[in-house]
Amino acid sequence: MIKSDIITRVMEEMGYTRTQADKAVNTVLKTIIETLSKGEDVVIRRFGTFEVYDSKRRKGRNLKTGEEVAIPPQRVVRFKPSKKLKFVEE
Question: Per-residue pLDDT tens for 51-77?
């Protein structure tokens, strides 16, 4: 599923025009991105949590030369699904 599929689904479910549905989906995504960029977590009940954390400095390797390279710490977003979202494989 891609973003345009979500917009189409919002159109069908809510009776919106494509423009209204596009604006609604973009507003939700923009809000999530802005909140994460502030370092705050985004919790969507019965779906999951988007968490921001600082990765640690670690060592990597240049694949061409084999030389060790220091990878600096960076802010990373992690998604943890809720228990209701996790699927059971049969």
Answer: 999 888 889 998 999 899 999 999 999
SS3 label, residue 56: coil
57 torsion bin: left (phi>0), alpha (psi -120 to 50), beta (else): beta
CA–CA separation, 63 and 66 (whole Å): 5
What Cα–Cα distance (Å) separates residue 13 from each residue in 6, 10, 21, 89?
A: 10, 5, 10, 29
* pTM, two decimal places: 0.76
Instruction: Residues 41-83: name the CATH superfamily.
Output: IHF-like DNA-binding proteins (4.10.520.10)
